[in-house]
Amino acid sequence: VAELAQQNHAPDMHGREREDRSSVQRPEEPWPMRPGERDQHQPMDERRQRDDQDATRNFPKQGLPQRNGAAEAAEIVRGREGVDEAGRGRAERDHQIGRPARQAAGAAIRHGRVAAHPRPLAFVTQHRLLVPHRLDLCAGCRPARGEQGIAAMPAQTNRTPPQSAERRLDLDWIRIGAFGLLILYHVGMLYVSWGFHVKSAHQLRELEPLMLLLNPWRMALLFLVSGAATRFMLGKYEVGPLTRRRSAQLLIPLAFGMLVVVPPQSFAEVVEKLGFSGGYLDFWLKHYLTFDQGFCRIENGRQSCLILPTWNHLWFVVYLWLYTMALAGLVALTPGLAERGQRLLERALPGLLLLLAPAVLLGLNRFLVFPAAPPTYVVIGDWYQHVLYGFCFLYGFLAARSKALAERTERLRWLALALAIAAFLAMLWLRAQPPGEFQRLVRPFVYGLDQWCWIVAILGFARRHLSRRDGPARRYLVEAVFCWYIVHQSA
């Protein structure tokens, strides 16, 4: 076959004389030689001739019939133009198929028609198999009848393969750290001057600046990471299985928490604030489980009643489930929503706009919505928190797979950190000033800048330093931290 293939003017199977290709510039080798091989710097024609000889020697019994062998091979397995596209992933294939098969494939591509497609490929003629070994070039191929013979083409399927569910280690570490800060924050709430379910007699005013530092962005960061996790889950599950799985992950712990974990908190609250004298079982059976609304007191000039049963710190689970279900419905009704939203977000937030535009949006939410609908944690009417946490959840969902946004975040990490520190110091200064029009106009936007810049700084530094940090600690904590969150406030 190799000797006949070198005859440029050999007649083909139809008696036509082939054109002289000796002066035609051929494409580069689809599989480059390894460094150190003897033919690394040989001229291209010598390398082709040696490969043809090696191919004939390695597969002596698998040639075409002697009649018009080279011409028939050229007609049936002629290499398509643009064969250099087959070089994608050629480094991995080079180790898999070995040198003999590589040389044979190179000869076949130069002298014949072949589908240059990066999947397992078999060169098939109408008579017999030309290359006896299945070359690991493409997966899921099917034979397709071509103009002169049968070539391997990618298998067609009606099912779109799911996106890869790669894991973002940096987001895992952020989630672990955010839940850890949340647990410490709730411990600190016992000792500061702000209201809480139960207060300690020992006040530590020194903790308040640290609590003020964490308060604007700690929950927003958790919702952002949760939105990213939802995007990755959509790469593994369809919408229906996703909603069922997410409901089981969130609603079962919520029900357990409301029935077992939260009641001790409510019991301690009614004992401390209202002087309840009954035992815990009496409170749990006769008041908590019966939806008793009689635990009321006057607070800040208004009557405040304890709603039973309640979810206390588990409000995060409720809101997260609602946002997940709403987003799943949108994805089901609007195919391709995630990809289109991601592209729109990438175009809308170039450069510094990634820092400034969301900060302005959060500032407007604080300025316009917060006075009319302050946080209530009861879902209905909690518009300030729905705008804040809904935006962060949606941003995390759209940005989770965006390399462009991740790179911009990493580049802006130092600037975001500087602005976050400056905004926090400005908040402390504004907090010490007397109320007035200046406070009302400026403070919400400083608060929004503080919220978003801390989030961007954390995302940027985590991507820079934690993207490849893995180990037993991460694998344990990423599973255990949610359980700790469920039980921590009562424990």
How would you explain this protein's 3D organization?
By secondary structure, this protein is mostly helical. It contains 18 helices and eight strands. The chain folds into two domains: 153 residues, no CATH class; 272 residues, no CATH class. 56% of the residues lie in helices and 6% in strands. Strands 1-2 form a two-stranded parallel sheet. Helix 13 packs across helix 17. The longest helix has 29 residues. The termini are far apart.
Q: Determine the number of helices (DSSP H or I, runs of at least 4 residues).
A: 18
Q: Radius of gyration, Cα only, in angstroms?
A: 33 Å
**Shape, principal axes of CA atoms:** globular
Helix content: 55-70%
| Low-confidence regions | 8-41, 58-69, 72-95, 112-165
Report the span from N to C terminus. Answer: 80 Å
The helix/strand class is mainly alpha
Please, what is the average pLDDT? 77
- How is the largest sheet built, in terms of strand order? 1-2
Largest sheet: 2 strands, parallel
User: How much strand content do the residues show?
Assistant: 5-15%
- Overall structural domain count: 2
Order of secondary-structure elements:
HHHEHEEEEEHHHHHHEEHHHHHHHH
Number of strands: 8
